[in-house]
Amino acid sequence: MDLAVHLGLIRTVPDEGGGGRRVLRSEIERMSSEAGFPDALRERVKVAGTTQGADLMHVSAGRFTRLARLGLVVPVKWYLNRYRAVVWLYRAEELKQVAADENNAPLLKARRMPEALRAMLDTGVDLRPRNWRGRHRGFLLRLAEDPWESAGALAAFLDPVHIAEIVPDPYERSHLNRFRPGPPTSGAPGSPSAHLAERLMTADDPDEISLLRADLTAALEEARDRRPAPRPATRRVPTPAHPAPPGPARPEDLEPPRGLLSRLRRRARGGAC
Questions:
Q1: pLDDT, tens digit, for every residue of 6-23?
Q2: Rounded to two decimals, what is the model's pTM?
Q3: Where is the composition biased (Basic residues) (predicted)?
Q4: Does residue 243 sit within a domain?
Q5: Do both 51 and 41 map to the same domain?
Q6: Is residue 53 located within the same domain as residue 13?
Q7: How far is Cα 186 from Cα 194, in angstroms, rounded to an integer?
Q8: Domain coverage including residue 190
């Protein structure tokens, strides 16, 4: 179900109670009325790892990995195994389409890959993380309901240093971070798995970073125009009024005090006379 939502095969709406997203009854009825449901839907979301993917494309596992590193096949999701190694998963339906495309025959059937591609592999190129980020970014942008959510979806793939450069205002940056989703798979905060998930989520190619920065800048301009980030209310300290100058003494102010101590003093003065 989650993968079907990610791929846009099932439409969801925000839960009015704030509990995430939900599927409307009308959407369930739409899916149920489609031919071949639910087997057809299961087939569309079926995934394959390296070994299964190689079998579907009739190539060796080694060649499949090289093709994935070059970007011919794009991961749809990933997980960390018990050794904290990244396991990439691919849509089986897409792998079959790639294998059936005659234009890909030289890459799939030739004994050796073209020299230019081998040179790229020798330099360590691996487009799997970037291609997965592009796919996941598309999913997050599809879910965005307003410009701030779109900006948060783009910011999710940038390092906090880049975000601080683009959004120097701390109040605006704090507001943006409310809409910045984390990695889809991670362990406990601060764990090695969480750090690895964050690294996979963060763009590291200069070209990718440049495009994300430009897109985020444009999204923020639209968000500011639509609804500026909230700021704390400014507290105005009241200015103390100037004290009024003392006026002439009133008659009642000139009368001697009528307390007990005053009466004793008057008696003492009378006895001394």
A1: 888 888 888 776 667 888
A2: 0.79
A3: 263-273
A4: no
A5: no
A6: no
A7: 5
A8: 129-226
How far, in Å, CA of 231 to CA of 150, rounded? 20
Domain boundary among 99, 126, 153: 126
Task: Evaluate whether residue 269 is within a structural domain.
Answer: no
Cα 234 to Cα 147: distance, rounded to the nearest angstrom: 26
CA distance linking residue 144 with residue 155, whole number of Å: 13
Q: Examine residue 272 and state whether it is found in any structural domain, yes or no.
A: no
| Strands 13-14 and 86-91, sheet pairing | unpaired
Position 41 in a domain: yes
Judgement on whether residues 220 and 145 belong to the same structural domain of the protein: yes
Write 51-60 long-range contacts (CB < 8 A, 24+): 52/92, 53/90, 53/92, 53/95, 56/92, 56/95, 56/96, 56/99, 57/95, 57/96, 57/98, 57/99, 57/108, 58/99, 58/108, 59/108
pLDDT digits (tens, 9 = 90+) for 212-248: 999 999 999 999 999 999 988 766 666 665 655 665 5
